Amino acid sequence: MQTTRKIILFSLMIAMVLSFSDCTKKNKVKHHDKTRVVQTTQILREVDSSCRALMLNQQTVMGVLYQQRSGEMKALAYQAFNIAKVMLDKDLADKSVNQHRTIVVDIDETVLDNSPYQAKCALENVRYPDFWLEWCKAARAKAIPGAVDFLNYAKANGVDVYYVTNRSNDVKEVTLKNLNDAGFPYADEKHLMVSTGESTKEPRRQQILEHNHIALLIGDNLNDFAQVFEKKSSGERMDLVDKMQDEFGRRFIVLPNAMYGDWEGAVYNYNYAQPDSVKIDLRLKGLKGF
Ligand SMILES: [Mg+2]
Q1: I need a surface site. Which of 49, 96, 138, 182 has the fewest CB within 10 A?
Q2: Domain boundaries, given as residue ranges, for the chain
Q3: Per the confidence metrics, is the pTM higher than 0.85?
Protein backbone atom coordinates (compact mmCIF):
# COMPACT_ATOMS: atom_id res chain seq x y z
CA MET A 1 0.00 0.00 0.00
CA GLN A 2 1.33 3.45 -0.88
CA THR A 3 2.34 5.70 1.99
CA THR A 4 -0.07 8.47 0.99
CA ARG A 5 -2.98 6.03 1.10
CA LYS A 6 -1.86 4.94 4.54
CA ILE A 7 -1.79 8.51 5.79
CA ILE A 8 -5.32 9.01 4.46
CA LEU A 9 -6.44 5.77 6.07
CA PHE A 10 -4.95 6.75 9.43
CA SER A 11 -6.51 10.19 9.22
CA LEU A 12 -9.89 8.61 8.51
CA MET A 13 -9.47 6.26 11.44
CA ILE A 14 -8.61 9.14 13.74
CA ALA A 15 -11.63 11.08 12.46
CA MET A 16 -13.87 8.07 13.08
CA VAL A 17 -12.54 7.62 16.60
CA LEU A 18 -12.93 11.31 17.42
CA SER A 19 -16.40 11.30 15.97
CA PHE A 20 -17.28 8.28 18.06
CA SER A 21 -15.92 9.97 21.19
CA ASP A 22 -17.95 13.08 20.41
CA CYS A 23 -21.05 10.96 19.86
CA THR A 24 -20.63 9.21 23.16
CA LYS A 25 -20.55 12.60 24.88
CA LYS A 26 -23.63 13.91 23.07
CA ASN A 27 -25.63 10.81 23.73
CA LYS A 28 -24.45 10.76 27.31
CA VAL A 29 -23.35 7.17 27.11
CA LYS A 30 -23.17 5.92 30.62
CA HIS A 31 -19.86 5.56 32.36
CA HIS A 32 -20.34 1.85 32.81
CA ASP A 33 -19.98 1.30 29.06
CA LYS A 34 -16.36 0.39 29.67
CA THR A 35 -16.04 -1.98 26.76
CA ARG A 36 -16.42 0.80 24.24
CA VAL A 37 -13.96 2.98 26.09
CA VAL A 38 -11.40 0.17 26.13
CA GLN A 39 -11.94 -0.50 22.42
CA THR A 40 -11.59 3.20 21.61
CA THR A 41 -8.41 3.47 23.66
CA GLN A 42 -6.99 0.43 21.90
CA ILE A 43 -7.80 1.85 18.48
CA LEU A 44 -6.21 5.15 19.43
CA ARG A 45 -3.09 3.36 20.62
CA GLU A 46 -2.83 1.38 17.39
CA VAL A 47 -3.35 4.48 15.27
CA ASP A 48 -0.78 6.36 17.34
CA SER A 49 1.73 3.53 17.01
CA SER A 50 1.20 3.22 13.25
CA CYS A 51 1.49 6.98 12.80
CA ARG A 52 4.77 7.09 14.71
CA ALA A 53 6.18 4.17 12.67
CA LEU A 54 5.05 5.99 9.54
CA MET A 55 6.73 9.19 10.71
CA LEU A 56 10.04 7.39 11.30
CA ASN A 57 9.87 5.77 7.89
CA GLN A 58 8.93 9.03 6.18
CA GLN A 59 12.03 10.61 7.70
CA THR A 60 14.19 8.12 5.80
CA VAL A 61 12.79 9.19 2.43
CA MET A 62 15.29 11.98 1.85
CA GLY A 63 18.18 9.67 2.70
CA VAL A 64 16.97 7.06 0.24
CA LEU A 65 16.36 9.70 -2.43
CA TYR A 66 19.90 10.97 -1.93
CA GLN A 67 21.29 7.47 -2.50
CA GLN A 68 19.07 6.77 -5.49
CA ARG A 69 18.54 10.07 -7.24
CA SER A 70 21.48 12.35 -6.56
CA GLY A 71 24.29 12.62 -9.06
CA GLU A 72 26.32 13.71 -6.04
CA MET A 73 26.04 10.25 -4.49
CA LYS A 74 27.27 8.69 -7.72
CA ALA A 75 30.08 11.25 -7.95
CA LEU A 76 31.14 10.54 -4.35
CA ALA A 77 31.25 6.81 -5.08
CA TYR A 78 33.43 7.35 -8.16
CA GLN A 79 35.56 9.75 -6.12
CA ALA A 80 36.03 7.13 -3.40
CA PHE A 81 37.17 4.43 -5.83
CA ASN A 82 39.33 6.88 -7.84
CA ILE A 83 41.12 7.82 -4.62
CA ALA A 84 41.33 4.14 -3.71
CA LYS A 85 43.12 3.46 -7.00
CA VAL A 86 45.62 6.26 -6.41
CA MET A 87 46.34 4.97 -2.91
CA LEU A 88 46.59 1.36 -4.06
CA ASP A 89 49.12 2.37 -6.70
CA LYS A 90 51.09 4.12 -3.99
CA ASP A 91 50.99 1.02 -1.83
CA LEU A 92 52.03 -1.18 -4.76
CA ALA A 93 55.06 1.04 -5.27
CA ASP A 94 56.16 0.51 -1.66
CA LYS A 95 58.84 -2.15 -1.93
CA SER A 96 59.12 -2.49 1.85
CA VAL A 97 55.85 -4.44 1.90
CA ASN A 98 56.77 -8.12 1.92
CA GLN A 99 53.44 -9.69 2.87
CA HIS A 100 50.66 -10.51 0.44
CA ARG A 101 48.60 -7.42 -0.32
CA THR A 102 44.87 -7.32 0.36
CA ILE A 103 42.00 -4.88 0.36
CA VAL A 104 39.21 -5.24 2.92
CA VAL A 105 35.79 -4.06 1.78
CA ASP A 106 32.42 -3.96 3.45
CA ILE A 107 29.49 -5.08 1.25
CA ASP A 108 26.28 -3.18 1.97
CA GLU A 109 26.34 0.40 0.68
CA THR A 110 30.06 -0.06 -0.06
CA VAL A 111 30.03 -2.41 -3.05
CA LEU A 112 26.34 -3.37 -3.25
CA ASP A 113 23.49 -0.88 -3.38
CA ASN A 114 20.55 -1.86 -1.15
CA SER A 115 18.63 1.37 -1.63
CA PRO A 116 15.71 -0.52 -3.29
CA TYR A 117 15.31 -2.42 -0.02
CA GLN A 118 15.30 0.82 1.97
CA ALA A 119 12.84 2.32 -0.50
CA LYS A 120 10.51 -0.65 -0.04
CA CYS A 121 10.62 -0.18 3.74
CA ALA A 122 9.63 3.47 3.34
CA LEU A 123 6.87 2.69 0.84
CA GLU A 124 5.43 -0.24 2.81
CA ASN A 125 5.92 1.36 6.24
CA VAL A 126 7.98 -1.58 7.51
CA ARG A 127 11.54 -1.72 8.76
CA TYR A 128 14.58 -3.97 8.95
CA PRO A 129 14.55 -6.97 9.21
CA ASP A 130 11.19 -7.13 7.38
CA PHE A 131 11.77 -8.26 3.76
CA TRP A 132 15.57 -8.31 4.30
CA LEU A 133 15.90 -12.04 3.60
CA GLU A 134 13.68 -11.74 0.54
CA TRP A 135 15.83 -8.88 -0.74
CA CYS A 136 19.10 -10.77 -0.17
CA LYS A 137 17.74 -13.96 -1.71
CA ALA A 138 16.69 -12.08 -4.82
CA ALA A 139 20.44 -11.30 -5.27
CA ARG A 140 19.54 -8.27 -7.36
CA ALA A 141 21.51 -5.53 -5.63
CA LYS A 142 23.45 -3.48 -8.15
CA ALA A 143 27.10 -2.56 -7.77
CA ILE A 144 28.01 0.80 -6.26
CA PRO A 145 29.47 2.95 -9.08
CA GLY A 146 33.20 2.41 -9.53
CA ALA A 147 33.41 -0.62 -7.22
CA VAL A 148 33.59 -3.40 -9.81
CA ASP A 149 36.25 -1.68 -11.91
CA PHE A 150 38.41 -0.84 -8.90
CA LEU A 151 38.31 -4.30 -7.33
CA ASN A 152 39.07 -5.92 -10.68
CA TYR A 153 41.99 -3.50 -11.03
CA ALA A 154 43.20 -4.70 -7.64
CA LYS A 155 42.93 -8.31 -8.77
CA ALA A 156 44.81 -7.54 -11.99
CA ASN A 157 47.63 -6.21 -9.79
CA GLY A 158 47.77 -9.33 -7.65
CA VAL A 159 45.90 -7.84 -4.70
CA ASP A 160 43.35 -10.02 -2.91
CA VAL A 161 39.96 -8.66 -1.84
CA TYR A 162 38.23 -9.77 1.35
CA TYR A 163 34.54 -8.98 1.76
CA VAL A 164 33.97 -8.46 5.48
CA THR A 165 30.26 -8.07 6.07
CA ASN A 166 27.77 -8.30 8.90
CA ARG A 167 25.38 -10.18 6.66
CA SER A 168 24.64 -13.55 8.26
CA ASN A 169 25.64 -17.03 7.16
CA ASP A 170 22.01 -17.63 6.06
CA VAL A 171 22.56 -15.36 3.09
CA LYS A 172 26.15 -16.26 2.29
CA GLU A 173 25.38 -18.25 -0.85
CA VAL A 174 22.99 -15.67 -2.28
CA THR A 175 25.44 -12.89 -1.46
CA LEU A 176 28.15 -14.72 -3.40
CA LYS A 177 25.74 -15.09 -6.30
CA ASN A 178 24.91 -11.38 -6.17
CA LEU A 179 28.60 -10.40 -6.08
CA ASN A 180 29.48 -12.78 -8.90
CA ASP A 181 26.55 -11.68 -11.06
CA ALA A 182 27.56 -8.05 -10.54
CA GLY A 183 31.10 -8.82 -11.78
CA PHE A 184 33.08 -8.66 -8.53
CA PRO A 185 36.34 -10.64 -8.22
CA TYR A 186 37.13 -13.08 -5.39
CA ALA A 187 33.45 -13.73 -4.74
CA ASP A 188 34.13 -17.12 -3.17
CA GLU A 189 33.90 -18.97 0.13
CA LYS A 190 37.40 -17.94 1.24
CA HIS A 191 37.07 -14.25 0.60
CA LEU A 192 33.56 -13.66 1.97
CA MET A 193 33.65 -13.30 5.75
CA VAL A 194 30.14 -13.09 7.16
CA SER A 195 29.13 -12.43 10.75
CA THR A 196 28.69 -15.39 13.03
CA GLY A 197 26.54 -13.33 15.37
CA GLU A 198 29.04 -10.68 16.38
CA SER A 199 28.71 -7.13 15.11
CA THR A 200 32.38 -6.22 15.49
CA LYS A 201 34.60 -6.80 12.48
CA GLU A 202 37.85 -6.54 14.40
CA PRO A 203 38.51 -10.31 14.84
CA ARG A 204 38.01 -10.84 11.12
CA ARG A 205 40.37 -7.97 10.29
CA GLN A 206 42.93 -9.47 12.67
CA GLN A 207 42.52 -12.87 11.00
CA ILE A 208 43.30 -11.32 7.62
CA LEU A 209 46.26 -9.42 9.08
CA GLU A 210 47.85 -12.65 10.33
CA HIS A 211 49.08 -13.47 6.84
CA ASN A 212 48.47 -10.33 4.82
CA HIS A 213 49.19 -6.65 4.49
CA ILE A 214 45.96 -4.64 4.33
CA ALA A 215 46.56 -1.87 1.83
CA LEU A 216 43.08 -0.31 2.12
CA LEU A 217 39.87 -0.63 4.10
CA ILE A 218 36.73 0.52 2.31
CA GLY A 219 33.33 1.00 3.96
CA ASP A 220 30.31 3.21 4.60
CA ASN A 221 30.47 2.88 8.40
CA LEU A 222 33.28 3.99 10.70
CA ASN A 223 33.15 0.52 12.26
CA ASP A 224 34.38 -0.85 8.92
CA PHE A 225 37.77 0.74 9.64
CA ALA A 226 38.66 0.34 13.30
CA GLN A 227 37.27 -1.04 16.54
CA VAL A 228 37.81 2.26 18.30
CA PHE A 229 34.63 3.66 16.72
CA GLU A 230 32.33 0.92 18.01
CA LYS A 231 29.46 1.87 20.35
CA LYS A 232 30.72 5.40 20.70
CA SER A 233 28.44 8.41 21.07
CA SER A 234 27.93 10.80 18.16
CA GLY A 235 30.29 13.31 19.79
CA GLU A 236 32.98 10.72 20.43
CA ARG A 237 32.73 9.48 16.84
CA MET A 238 33.17 13.03 15.58
CA ASP A 239 36.21 13.58 17.83
CA LEU A 240 37.79 10.31 16.73
CA VAL A 241 37.35 11.23 13.09
CA ASP A 242 39.14 14.51 13.79
CA LYS A 243 41.95 12.64 15.52
CA MET A 244 42.28 10.15 12.69
CA GLN A 245 41.74 12.64 9.86
CA ASP A 246 44.96 11.68 8.08
CA GLU A 247 43.70 8.11 7.53
CA PHE A 248 40.68 9.12 5.44
CA GLY A 249 41.38 9.14 1.74
CA ARG A 250 44.60 7.26 2.49
CA ARG A 251 44.16 3.88 4.13
CA PHE A 252 40.46 4.38 4.92
CA ILE A 253 38.14 5.02 1.98
CA VAL A 254 34.60 6.08 2.96
CA LEU A 255 31.42 5.71 0.92
CA PRO A 256 28.36 7.86 1.69
CA ASN A 257 25.28 6.28 3.27
CA ALA A 258 22.55 8.71 4.29
CA MET A 259 19.99 5.91 4.83
CA TYR A 260 21.24 4.12 7.95
CA GLY A 261 24.36 3.19 9.87
CA ASP A 262 25.97 3.43 13.27
CA TRP A 263 25.71 7.21 12.99
CA GLU A 264 21.96 6.60 13.45
CA GLY A 265 22.54 4.02 16.19
CA ALA A 266 24.62 6.59 18.07
CA VAL A 267 21.64 8.99 18.02
CA TYR A 268 19.59 6.30 19.85
CA ASN A 269 22.45 5.36 22.20
CA TYR A 270 22.43 2.10 20.23
CA ASN A 271 19.04 1.16 21.68
CA TYR A 272 17.07 0.42 18.52
CA ALA A 273 14.36 -1.26 20.60
CA GLN A 274 13.21 2.01 22.11
CA PRO A 275 9.65 3.09 21.32
CA ASP A 276 9.25 5.05 18.11
CA SER A 277 8.11 8.09 20.08
CA VAL A 278 11.47 8.13 21.91
CA LYS A 279 13.41 7.69 18.66
CA ILE A 280 11.51 10.60 17.10
CA ASP A 281 12.40 12.76 20.13
CA LEU A 282 16.06 11.70 19.98
CA ARG A 283 16.21 12.52 16.29
CA LEU A 284 14.82 16.00 16.93
CA LYS A 285 17.10 16.53 19.90
CA GLY A 286 20.06 15.53 17.72
CA LEU A 287 19.47 18.51 15.41
CA LYS A 288 21.66 21.54 15.90
CA GLY A 289 19.73 24.71 15.21
CA PHE A 290 20.77 28.30 15.66
MG1 LIG B 1 27.89 -1.17 4.98
Answers
A1: 96
A2: 3-59, 71-112+140-267
A3: yes
